[in-house]
Request: fold
Amino acid sequence: MYLSGLTVNKVLIADDCELNRQLLTFFLEKLNINVMSASNGLEALELTKK
Reply:
């Protein structure tokens, strides 16, 4: 997927609403984008270290 000339192949979703994370993950994976999700900012920061 291309956004403003950038190639996107991995996205980190940080949202406290599980339904929002599930919906975004579903649609992004349909676009062949790898998705990591976190339920809060601290968890998101930890995921960026991996």
Remarks:
- The chain has one domain: 2-48.
